[in-house]
């Protein structure tokens, strides 16, 4: 017999999940997959939609705590997120259509564990932690610890995501997420990249550290190894003298590193070779946009169509 319950408190939800109920937030993955015949609906489902305490974005002493059922529509416009975690706002602004963004949640995106999820790469570069709750308490895991393969996580039976925690951004830092898409709406990323760039607070515009993560080019979201070393010391912001002040070498190197470390598949939407090439382009664009934001430039959310940077490899 099928059972569908609305939890009215987090404790009730955790008790039901401990009893084998499957959590559902917006249902835009769970229900849509069932309707399309990809996976049957679980027999026992608990809706999290009444849990208003999980629908809050909170500023903490150390950063932001984003409740698991905060929607993409909220993430793309929340001033705290746009200000401190801009790559995450970029990503949520790109998800599906307005209707998908209005019901689809960050918790559902993360726990669905698709390698093409848009919020994943931003969480990696922003040093996000996923809060997993259970009747026994809670623990925090990094994205790399959470995602174990396409559609699978290391969450234990009885655990559900209650929140995502993001540390305060370092000074003079900025972040961005860009993706390749063939049309604007109702489509997941062909490939994507997020970057965070921290500039020297001395105003020289030189990079002191950086992080880059890639979407849809491996079984899980991956972080580019060596990104910080490649970009350290580079000047990625145009100054008064114009674009010639940008160090092109490190940008080309980061694109190469992203392409080299990608292990994409071929499918109907793109060949592995095309994905490999394009993820380099995306990585480079994300780094440039993040650097410009770190330097104080205001680029709209999402950043894709607003960079005007004419990036080429
Ligand atoms: C038309 C369309 C377009 C889309 N476009 C995009 C896109 O561009 N980019 C993108 O990334 N995604 C896209 N998606 C996928 C989907 O909308 C997102 O992944 C969304 O964030 C899922 O959130 P949800 O709340 O609807 O998840 P649900 O469908 O409710 O849940 C998804 C999975 O996560 C589990 N789950 C949900 N919440 C929790 C929790 N708190 N703790 C533990 N497990 C939980 C569920 O059991 C289920 O396995 C699209 C979907 C559709 C239908």
Characterise this structure:
This protein is α+β, with helices and mostly antiparallel strands and 313 residues long. It has two domains: 3-32 and 55-167, Uridine Diphospho-n-acetylenolpyruvylglucosamine Reductase, domain 3, CATH 3.30.465.10; 173-302, CO dehydrogenase flavoprotein, C-terminal domain (Enolase-like, domain 1, 2-Layer Sandwich), CATH 3.30.390. 32% of the residues lie in helices and 23% in strands. The protein has helices at 10-18, 30-35, 72-77, 79-84, 86-94, 98-103, 106-112, 120-125, 143-146, 227-231, 248-261, 272-294, and strands at residues 3-6, 22-24, 44-47, 57-59, 63-67, 129-134, 137-141, 147-149, 152-153, 160-167, 173-180, 191-199, 207-215, 222-223. Strands 4-5-10-6-7 form a five-stranded antiparallel beta sheet. A four-stranded antiparallel beta sheet has the order 11-12-13-14. Helix 11 packs across helix 12 (272-294). The radius of gyration is 19 Å and the shape is globular. The chain binds flavin-adenine dinucleotide. Residues 22-30, 32, 48, 68, 94-96, 100, 103-105, 107-109, 111-112, 117-118, 160-161, 186, 188 line the site of flavin-adenine dinucleotide. Flavin-adenine dinucleotide binds next to strand 2, helix 2, helix 6, helix 7 and strand 10.
């Amino acid at each position: 017999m099928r059972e569908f319950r609305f939890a009215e408190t987090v404790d009730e939800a955790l008790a039901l999940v401990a009893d084998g109920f499957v959590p559902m937030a917006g249902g835009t993955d769970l229900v849509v997959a069932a309707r399309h015949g990809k996976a049957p609906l679980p027999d026992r489902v608990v809706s999290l939609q009444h849990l208003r305490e999980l629908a809050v974005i909170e500023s903490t002493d150390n950063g932001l705590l984003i409740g698991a059922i905060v929607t993409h529509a909220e993430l793309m416009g929340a001033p705290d997120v746009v200000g401190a975690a801009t790559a995450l706002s970029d990503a949520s602004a790109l998800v599906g259509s307005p209707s998908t963004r209005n019901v689809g949640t960050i918790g559902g995106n993360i726990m669905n564990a698709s390698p093409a999820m848009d919020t994943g790469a931003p969480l990696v570069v922003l040093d996000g932690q996923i809060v997993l709750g259970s009747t026994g308490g809670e623990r925090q895991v990094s994205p790399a610890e959470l995602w174990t393969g396409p559609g699978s996580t290391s969450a234990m039976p009885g655990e559900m995501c209650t929140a995502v925690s993001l540390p305060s951004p370092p000074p003079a830092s900025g972040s961005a997420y860009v993706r390749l898409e063939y049309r604007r709406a109702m489509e997941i990323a062909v490939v994507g990249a997020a970057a965070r760039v921290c500039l020297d607070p001395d105003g020289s515009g030189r990079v002191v550290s950086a992080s880059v993560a890639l979407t849809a080019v491996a079984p899980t979201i991956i972080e580019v190894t060596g990104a910080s070393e490649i970009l350290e010391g580079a000047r990625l912001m145009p100054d008064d003298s114009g674009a010639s002040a940008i160090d092109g070498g490190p940008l080309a190197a980061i694109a190469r590193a992203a392409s080299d470390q990608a292990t994409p598949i071929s499918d109907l939407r793109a060949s592995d070779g095309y994905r490999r090439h394009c993820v380099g382009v995306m990585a480079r664009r994300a780094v440039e946009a993040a650097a410009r934001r770190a330097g104080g430039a205001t680029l709209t959310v999402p950043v894709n169509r607003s960079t005007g940077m004419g990036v080429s490899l």
